[in-house]
Amino acid sequence: MSKLPVIKGRELVKFLESMGFRVIRTKGSHVRLRAEDGRLTTVPVHGNKDIPKGLLRKIIREDLEMSLDEFSESYLGYTGKRKDD
Q1: How far apart are CA 45 and CA 13, in angstroms?
Q2: pLDDT at 80
Q3: Where are the domains of the chain?
Q4: How far apart are CA 75 and CA 72, in angstroms?
Q5: pLDDT score for 34
């Protein structure tokens, strides 16, 4: 199993938009996104803070309906980094 990347809220929102999610609402520091297939997620954007690992796992597994490995590979492809980095 691959290690989860450390991601900031704004960075995750941009990545999800690249995956086809659209921002449908912003309320305070929380951004709500929806995919065309109906999946929904809420991402906290608290300044420049990282998203806690547990919350990131929940978003990946339950909201995005992806495995942690699938997410890691997609994110690494998006950032252009290799697994070795």
Answers
A1: 9
A2: 85
A3: 9-79
A4: 5
A5: 98
CATH node for 9-79: 3.30.920.30
Average pLDDT by stretches of 10, the chain with 85 residues: 85 96 96 97 95 96 95 91 59
Q: How many helices (H) and strands (E) does the chain have?
A: 3, 3
CA distances (Å), 9 to each of 1, 16, 81, in order? 23, 11, 19
Cα dist. 28→12, 25, 46, 60, 85 in Å? Answer: 17, 10, 9, 22, 34
Global pTM reads: 0.88
- Both structure tokens of 51: 């998203």
15/28 Cα distance (integer angstroms): 20
Instruction: Collect all residues with Cβ–Cβ distance below 8 Å to 30 and sequence separation of at least 6.
Output: 42, 43, 44, 45
Distance of CA 84 to the CA centre of its chain: 21
User: And the tokens for 3?
Assistant: 């290690």
